[in-house]
Amino acid sequence: MLKPPILLPLLLSLALLPACQGGGSSGGNDGGMDSGTGTDSDSETEIDTSWDGGPTTPCTGSPGPGEVCIRGGTYLMGCMPYDTWCEDNEYPMVEVALSPFWIDLREATYEHVMAWMNTLGDEHIKDNQWLRDPEGNILFTSAWDTSPPICYDADAGEYDYDPDCHDGCGGPPTAAAGGLTWLGAKRFCEHWGKRLPTEAEWEAAARGQTKLIWPCDWEHKPCWHGKYAMCYENDECYVEICCAPDEDDTLSECNSPYGVQGLYGNAAEWTLDGADPDHSWCQDGCTDPAPRPPNDEGAYVGKGGCIATDATWTRISARMEIEFGSPPVGVRCVRSPVSFGEPDAGPDGGK
Q1: Class (C level, CATH) for 1-21+176-338
Q2: What are the residue boundaries of the structural domains of the chain, listed by start?
Q3: How far is CA 320 from CA 2, 52, 83, 96, 325, in A?
Q4: Nearest partner of 99 among 334, 331, 302, 344, judged by Cα
Q5: Which residues contact 91 (CB under 8 A, 6 or more apart)?
Q6: 205 closest CA partner among 102, 283, 281
Q7: How high is the pLDDT of residue 340?
Q8: pLDDT at 26 (0 to 100)
Q9: Confidence of residue 146 (pLDDT cuts 50, 70, 90)
């Protein structure tokens, strides 16, 4: 089963993507989903991305800062019928009934991650390359040439942002943060009273009740508004391996049907689910499915992201099997009354 090139950032060169397509913002807000139709630019075949998922229910209470409501209802998960890029682990396409939940509008930034890191006690092992818990499990790493610009000041006893402490990579403090292991991402969300999304929840936030392949409307091709994707005058696109740019308008130009931003730009995002072989466990439908355990290699599913990947891995149904928290891996949290208990950290404790 293929694994994305995100796992070997030091060995990668720039990946060439298909030509950019024009198009404006797809917009989007709570409940305002636009199914629409699109055109496959390779075959000029019109594709219907609409799907009747039935009634939905709103979130209860009020959103926290930067949260978006994903309404409760039935959603599709897995390979869409007209998607020719799917891997075996994306089948079958299944229907999943979900309770409503709140999801962060954008990925956590370096500022958010540093704020969490600086709440951790002295029993944690801290330096410029690793953050480990008292048991030695890695929570955050800067041990790559593409390192996030977060450094530990031993005299001050805290982490700080410094673009010169590594190789100047990773973007400014407001850029989406990479460098978290699965265990680190899990504890980051728990610090804020939240949790990681399940794979089904992530796909619902990205696709809504539609059959979209990417979170945007069809005119937004894979490389179009991804935050690491660069477009040039000759309309050729490629993914930049190293540095994440600052927050800018590109995030708001690729909203999912529910208005969630940056789901196929920035870093990949951890989910609670382990990298099981496929979706056959839900082939007859399932309701608020509990996270799947990690596979024998301790791999979990990463979703979205375009750094060091091609268009195949930016699709909603694509499943990155990630065994280690390489710098491009980031986090987006959810808040929900659904509780799954304590997820298993895997055979290596999330290292």
Answers
A1: alpha beta
A2: 1-21+176-338, 110-175
A3: 8, 28, 17, 20, 12
A4: 334
A5: 78, 79, 278, 279
A6: 102
A7: 83
A8: 29
A9: low
